[in-house]
Structure formats: structure tokens, C-alpha cells
Amino acid sequence: MEKVVRLISMAPLFLQMLLVSFPLAFAGHDYGQALSKSILFFEAQRSGYLPGSQRVKWRADSGLHDGKASGVDLVGGYYDAGDNVKFGLPMAFTITMMSWSIVEYGKQMAANGELGHAMEAVKWGTDYLIKAHPHPDVLYGEVGDGNTDHNCWQRPEDMTTDRRAYKIDPSNPGSDLAGETAAAMAAASIVFHRSNPSYANELLTHSQQLFEFADKYRGKYDSSITVAQKYYRSYSGYADELLWAAAWLYQATNNQYYLSYLGNNGQSLGGTGWAMTEFGWDVKYAGVQVLVSKMLMQGKGGRYSSVLQQYQEKAEFFLCSCLGKSSRNIQKTPGGLIYRQRWNNMQFVTSASFLATVYSDYLTSAGKNMNCAAGSASPSALFSFAKSQVDYILGDNPRATSYMVGYGNNYPRQVHHRGSSIVSIKVDPSFVSCRGGYATWFSRKGSDPNLLTGALVGGPDAYDNFADERDNYEQTEPATYNNAPLIGLLARLGGGHGGYNQLLPEVVPAPKEAVTTPKSAPTPKFTPAPASTSAEVAIEQKLTTSWVANGKSYYRYSTVVTNKSAKTVKDLKLTISKLYGPIWGLEKKGDSYGFPAWLNSLAAGEKLEFVYIHSADPAEVSVSSYTLA
Known about the structure:
The chain is α+β, with helices and mostly antiparallel strands. It has 18 helices and 14 strands. It has helices spanning 13-16, 31-44, 88-111, 115-131, 146-150, 175-191, 197-216, 229-232, 239-253, 256-265, 285-297, 305-323, 346-366, 379-393, 418-421, 434-442, 473-476, 480-495; strands spanning 86-87, 139-143, 165-168, 370-372, 375-377, 537-549, 552-563, 569-577, 583-584, 587-589, 592-594, 601-602, 607-614, 620-628. The strands form five sheets. The chain has a four-stranded antiparallel beta sheet, with no helix packed on it. It has a three-stranded antiparallel beta sheet with strand order 1-2-3. Helix 9 (239-253) packs antiparallel against helix 10 and helix 13 (346-366) runs parallel beside helix 18 (480-495). The chain is globular. 53% of the residues are buried.
């Protein structure tokens, strides 16, 4: 949970000049594994009735009466951090950044088998936001009270704290909260545009209503929901969220109204004026400026292109500051980590690194470099910077500590998190009281009884120091908005660029695996594996690449399933034998394989590609069954 006061510890200059020696990228990182874990974390943060597909088994239903006293159903959503409060502003920002991650790198997530899980994580949030917006000019922005919640150390399943709901409306406005929620729903509508168009349209309707509400009834949300001031005060005001929402609505709809809003209000709302060195749940300007830069490079600026160029100048100021090539640079620890503040510094690391990554890909697609005060910067320099931050998170740092719980061998074991630090209610259903939880579980010095897999904690101080202690909330508390941009980063690092134009994400080819090739492997004699193909469904396999690792040869095979009929193929089941490695692009269903989570049919003439890697001849793939509709 965020703190009101932002405390920035300035390291002495000489410390920043030290050459720090520590183990570096010893054998590289498994970004795919880290991606899977980082998405799983969101399931531990769920509130409400948990689904049968819930993978974090130590959690159970909670907050089942949220909103009841106000006559509205507010069951669901996410707890923001290590507490049991549902704060609307950081929750909406989390959903916006998860959605942006998928919009940019959904192909890579699909190749890793995680796109379905990522989309489920977004929908868990947007389902709640829809409930929280029961009227065009009413939005519920908080359930629970941070003050009473922080006096208790209880599992979500045992909560006895006040679950009052707080809202904004025309008499009590909150343009920042409404604007961020509008941005979240617009971004998510792009995620679901193809797979669930009716849901995407529903999200767009809510987004447009919320933007109108935010713009018409202006005010800071924490002046209306005053209980949020101690935890998520809106220091930057609401101007950045109005631009942020307009930018996402333009991306989602191509409606010229939102472009004109960005063009006509860029100066008055600060989009073309503020040069920032941070990006997060409060201050959105750098995110707006990068997103608007994408529009400009996509050729969508129209008559406002000159104004959009001013946004881009400020975007590049932020990114140059990350590289240390600006007139005002972001502070870093001696070990090279972005450092903004003592409390949950890691949120700024992942958000800044995400912007650097997407902008690097935008520049690559446009064939451009970035101009900084200290000279030109290439797209690869931006990407290398982002990679260095992620590698630091995963263990390439002076302490050789992974700040993602459950990744690597040396990670935080005493996380400041109520649910993970108290024995699961499924293991011991005995009631844990408000103060009893502090006495029995909070003060306990042992490792958490429940592993909070994938959680990214607050991280080290300005000198790379870290204390793994439960009461060290500044460093050991995780947050959803730490992980949200990280899933995009990990997908990109693990899946590669794919060689496609990042400015045209809707029509990109399937990404290719990024494989380290220390030396070439001998190409095997390739004989197509037997495949039971019918007149309607054809299967074709081919070897696409090979390499040697640790003296062993590995081969990557691509398999294409084609619907040659004049009808739609549904309920496809494939049998795959002699498979000895990982497979991407299919979902295991019992003893057979079926469509992946993001696909439920193949129209006439359409193709489905899946890939697998193993150190043998091609697997045997056959069609078990299907239906034609």
C-alpha cells in the first residue's frame, strides 16, 4: 500500500561512482517462468467468490458482502497489496497496465501459453469495475478503510474490519479516479476486441461514460473519498488522467473527438508541458506521452501532429533520463536500479522499464533513433536498459537476491502480506482475530506458511540494501501495480520481438522463439511424422531451427493445422505422441490437445500454428475428432 509522504533518500555522489562487483546474469534468466509466476500473483490478490479454475489453492472466498450496505454488488476485484482494502485508483491503473502489456506483447504471451491467464487477470478486474459503475455519473472507488484495516492482521477470509463503500458522483467528483477507470476499460476493450466483442463494447460504453463524467465534473477524488488520502492521495491531480483516458479511448475507437481532446488540451492539462522522471499509479504524464508518440508514429496525428510532436519530446525527455542522457536524470542505486523512493520503489522500476521497452520497439518499427540532451540513443540502448532492470529484479544485483517471490533460490520469505503470512483457512479454519493475527502471525520470524508466488516486493533501498522482515513494509510489501507492467516486460524478453511492426499490433505475424545458439546443431534427416489428416483438416509439420546447449541438440518444430472445409471447425482434438519437450499454442485437455484459450474455432481456410521443442525427430500428430458447424 502506498504511503502519503514520498521520501527520497539521495545517495552521496561518490557512492554512485563506485564500481560495484557482483555476480552477473550467471546463466541467464528464465523469463518465461518469471512471466508465469508474475501472472499467478494476481490470483492470490483476488477478492470475492473464487472460480473453480483458481490455481492459488491456499486462498478462499472473501469480501462476499462488499457493497451490500450501499445497495450495490461490489463483490470481486483485487486487494491492492498486503492488506484487505480495495482501492479503486491503483486497481484501475493495474488493469490499464496489464491491458497495455497484452496489447503490445500478447503474441509473446500466447507463445508461452500465458495469454489466457493474462486475459483472465484483466477480466477479473474489469468485471469488478463494471459493478463499481452502476450509473453513468456514479463510481465506487473504495471498499474498506485503510485505517481500520491496518489495525488488524487477518486473512481476507476472516475479515472483521469495516467494509464500507465510498463513491464519487457529480456532487463529490473525482476526475482522476474516473479518468483512470475510463482508461482501464478502454485499454481492456482492445484486449477483448477479437475474442469477446460484446464484452469489449460493454467496456467501451462504460469508458466513454466515465470519461464524460470525469471531464464534466472536475475534482480530485481524494477530496471526495477522504479515507484514501493517507494511502493513495492524488498528488498530481486529475489533468494527467483526463489525457490518459482520452489517449486510450482514441486507441480503442479511432474517434476523432478524443484526438482533438488531446490536441486542444495538451498545453492546458500539462501533456505537452510536463517533463517527468517518474511514471506510476499517481503520475501518468510519461505514459500519456509515450502512448501519444505511438499514435504519431502510426500516422494517426492528423492536423494535430505538431501538438503530438510536443508530447513526444516530453516522452523522450523521460526515456533519456532513464538512460542518464538527459538534463535531469533518474537516480539509480550503485547496483544500477532505478531509485525513486524508500516505500515500494519497485513500482517505478517496472513502469519505467515498460515504457522504455515499448518505445524501443516503436522506434525500431519506425526506423528511428531518439535524440537526447547528451546525444542520440538507439532503440537497443533503451531495450538494454529495460533488460538490466528486469535482470536486477530477478537476481543480478549486489545481494544476488530475487525480488520476485518464488523465482530463483534466494527470494523474500517474510513478505508483508496478510494472506500469505497466516496459515491457510483450508489448513486451519480456526478464526484469526484482528489483534490475534498480529500477536501470532505478524510477529512470527519464520517463513510465510503460504508462498506468494510471483509477487514483486518493494525492493532495496538507495544503496541496494534489503532486509527480509515482515514488519519492513517499505521493502517487503508487494503490490498489483508492481506486477502489471512487468508481465509485458517478461513476455517481450522471453518471446523476442518477432520481427513485426510494433506500430501495427493488430496484424503482426506469429512471433518466433528467441533462442540462444552457442553453436549450430547438426540438422537431422527430416521425415514428416505420420499425421491423420482428413479432407477437412490438414496437418503440416516443419523444422524451423536447431541449436546445441550443454552438448545436446535441440530442434524447434512448427505445426500448422488448416481448415480445408467450407465450414467452421469446432471442438478440435489432436493426439500428439513422441513429444519430449514443451509445446506452445495448444491447450492440454486430458490425453489430447485442443484449441488454445484465446481461440475456440477455425473458420473456413483459417490456420492454427503451434510449436514445440525437443531433442528428437518430429512428434506424431493426428486428428482425433472435431465438429463442423
